[in-house]
Amino acid sequence: MARQFNTVSIQTEASAWRTLEAVLERGTAYRRGDIELGDWTKFEAKFWIGKKEAVLTPPIMRALLELQDAILRTKLIAIEQKSSLHNISQQERDSYEIEAYVYAGSTGVEIDLTEIAKHFIGEMVDNVPPEYILIIVLAALLLWVGNSAWRAWLEHRKDLALEQVDAGKQRDLLEAQKFASQVDLDRWKLLAQAQQAVPIVGEIEEAVEKSRLSLLRAAARSDKAKLGQRILNSDVAEEIIKSSRAADEEESYRGTFQVLGVDSTPKYGFRFRLEDVASGERYYASVRDAILASREMEVLQEAVFQKSEITAEVKLTRRDFAVVKAEVVLVEVI
Known about the structure:
Elements: E1 8-10, H1 13-26, E2 35-37, E3 42-48, H2 58-80, H3 90-95, E4 100-103, E5 107-112, H4 114-127, H5 130-145, H6 147-163, H7 169-175, H8 182-197, H9 200-220, E6 224-227, E7 230-233, H10 234-242, E8 249-263, E9 271-276, E10 282-287, H11 295-306, E11 309-319, E12 322-333
Parallel strand pairs: 1-2, 10-12
Antiparallel strand pairs: 3-5, 3-6, 4-5, 6-7, 8-9, 8-11, 9-10, 11-12
């Protein structure tokens, strides 16, 4: 079958991350066409429970139900802008119903989400403005099954646990554990950028996090587990569960920026894409309503066309070390 001109082919998880980065960098006006998926949209986990094989314990079953709920909530958040599962129809539940394959050699769980992902993409194409489709689809799938997302999340939660535990055996256990590579951490920042571009990505991430915590509880009730292709023992899982999520951190920052582009889509307002010259960090920044018609806006727009640098003061909100919200407060020409 001939491939349509605007077909987007995503055959691996690495390809999905590259495509998300490209869309965030250059934008897209994705129109009707195909999004071809390979066989990477699979959730995999493994639990060691004594000498038992292929046994589903209540904590594992609850975790799988939480994953099911996260997928359903993703569909509702992305398409209907709500997250409550009340009044969801049986037809909708059937369309997004997961099937878990449990195999021996401890308790291995595999869930192929390919057909669910295709159905989700189809609904997105029919109901969501085209410029948001790829960002939401890619972010959602990577949050559901992305191994890099799992590893980066585990690393951040481990660091948070370290901040909340005293010296001793438990601290030694946490310090000895390394979940994520720098590539994983950089990819996690792409999800933060996706949230800046399309705020509902943050709501999807919160829905998926509940299922991750539930899977960690299952790991804590096992001898050890494998999540995101990383082994963690029950003690480490328990310590991570006990740590509370850090509150968002706000800071005001003044620096030199390259203005990479502008996003004027009406749904999320007028925003500029900035690169911090000193750190290389990139993010979308909105502009305060009070200066929408002022000289600052003109300076930002001119910097886009002239590819010039500016000095700006921005108000940043960070979560898990990544910027999830930014607002331009003051702008000056260099």
